[in-house]
Amino acid sequence: MADTGRLDQPRARRRSLRPRQDADRLGRFSESFARFMGTATFLAWMTLVIVVWIIWNSSWGPDRPRWDEYPFIFLTLILSLQASYAAPLILLAQNRQESRDRVQQEQDREATAQSHADMQFLAREVASLRLGIGEVATRDFIRGELRGLLESLEDDDRDDDTDD
Questions:
Q1: Which tens digit of pLDDT belongs to each residue from 65-124?
Q2: Cα–Cα distance between 158 and 22 in angstroms, integer?
Q3: Cβ distance 38 to 86 under 8 Å?
Q4: Are 70 and 58 spatial neighbours (Cβ–Cβ below 8 Å)?
């Protein structure tokens, strides 16, 4: 009878020859790459490389081996290759940002709904307090009633004094 393993025990972990890959690694790289490509530093370095390339490979530069004569086909190829890799990385970074924005909007929507519910509850509470206060005798009302009673008692005493 073959041993199929026990169901109440965890299996031994199998070793894999493939390295563990972080699923989010490419996304983080694409975001940092897109962020760097949008800086003045990137533009300055790219401009410097292109200017040096053109000067080196043109007749303006000193006599030395030139690997990319005018019309600079190799430079065009490299820039096209860079653009072909940059575009998908930028799109990936935008998709990740869109996902984060969607989550943030959902959280904002939930917070707004909760705030709205809280405000409605508080409005109902304030309305019920106003109704309750309308039924409660205020201090001024009681003072006025007591003054009226006091005046009526004084009037009754005066009337009794005048009758004697």
A1: 777 788 889 999 999 999 998 888 888 888 888 999 999 999 999 999 999 999 999 999
A2: 100
A3: no
A4: yes
Which residues have a Cβ under 8 Å from the Cβ of 16 and sit 6 or more positions away? none
Average pLDDT value for residue range 51-77: 82
Q: Write the DSSP assignment of 97-132 as a string of letters.
A: HHHHHHHHHHHHHHHHHHHHHHHHHHHHHHHHHHHH
Q: Where are the domains of the chain?
A: 26-163
DSSP label of 162: H
In order, the DSSP letters of 4-54 are ---TTSPPPPPP-SSPP--TTHHHHHHHHHHHHHTSHHHHHHHHHHHHHHH
Its pTM stands at 0.51
Q: Which of 22, 72, 68, 75 is nearest to 46 (CA)?
A: 75
CB 13 within 8 A of CB 7: no
